[in-house]
Amino acid sequence: MSRIFRKFRLSQISESRSGKYFIYAIGEIILVVIGILIALQINNWNQARNDDKALKEYLGKIRSHTLKDIQWLDSLSIYRTYVGLQCKKARKSILDKTEEQNLSLLMSCGSAFMDYYFRPNTSGYEALKNSKYFGKINNTVLDSLLTNYYRIVDDIAQNESSYNHYVNGQENYLSTQFDRSLILATAFLPPDSLNIRATPQSEYYEDFAEYTASASYRNVIGLAAFQFESMVNQYKKLKGVGNGIVTEIDVLIKN
Fold first, then answer.
1. Helices within the chain (DSSP H only)
2. pTM (2 decimals)?
3. pLDDT by residue (tens digit) across 143-164?
């Protein structure tokens, strides 16, 4: 009988130890799982922080490039506004048949033949588009601004290309009709240098009068008087969107 009770007590002790060991094992497993979850969370947090840093570097480049674009737009606006106004005055003089009195005005419109182009720095934006971080700005205010910005850039490129192509054609034709050596000399040589030459000043003016009276020259004046204003308006529109991009990037970088 005593043997039976002794076996019973031993079995109870064994079962108690097994139960405690089972609870301990479960606790160990839970701790391991919690440790893994914490490690994953830390890894995800570090990855998110690295991604955020990389995105901000891309945005910083776009911001810098946009600011430089705006400076170039300001310079182009000043140039085209001035030349456009000169061409409008020259066009009025032509309509009023006062070209002879305003020959110097018509001469100043020769700047309308210069083929300037607005060439934005797109490298920062293209780099972001080709990176894995581009999705982070999808359907955001910045995404909308950038899309609008480069749509206007394309419109400007088409406008400038159309104008410059036409002007180059007119200039090439004029080159076949006139000896422009006197005109170029007046444009690029200082007055003191011209005064000591054998060619009298009156001959320069005669050459200019004939040159500026040509249909091709006046066609360019007329086009510049109209189209430069349109170009400047496009520059202003793009500048406004560009300032919006810079402001939006400043907000994102600070967050």
1. 2-95, 103-108, 123-129, 141-177, 181-188, 191-195, 201-212, 215-254
2. 0.78
3. 999 999 999 999 999 999 999 9
